[in-house]
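Please review this one.

:::
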Amino acid sequence: MKDIRIETERLVMVPADMSWRDDMLRMFNEPGVADWLFLTGPPTRDELTKRIEVHEAFWRAHGFGLFAVIEKSSGRFVARVGPMPTLGPGLAEVAWSTVSEAWGKGYASEAALASMRFTFARSPVETLSCFLRPDNTPSRRVAEKIGFRYLDTRYLYGRPLRYYRITRSDLAV
């Protein structure tokens, strides 16, 4: 995992391993971020450690996963983006969360698209999913911008979520 690095026009992306835990914890504790992601508040440090361990194992097993996203111009952590294990259909769902300072800059779209291209290029995965709260208009726009197609609404992770899917051929990889 240490040799994996994606560069886009404005971002550097590396696997989101334990070395990024404090940055993710700060992001998850931002009220605006926590409100969108968590039913009962952001994870504790110990809970996040366990989640990251799951994501690291997913990387080792499949050769793709969540990325820590760094803004090239500042060198700052700005997001965690990419495929992760899903409770829904398929092997992986694409997730994105950005620090509030990065909202509206297009980083989620840029990083999610790069992570999906990486995943399709390096794995036999044919389909990726994403699940969004019905009222999360900014994330809906990201999903649609990068090619996800809305299928239906499902109950997952303790709430109703809009289910989107993209295939390898949709992305033309």
In short: The CA atoms of residues 133 and 161 lie 5 Å apart. The helical segments are 21-28, 31-37, 45-62, 107-122, 137-145, 168-171. The longest strand covers residues 77-85. The radius of gyration is 15 Å.
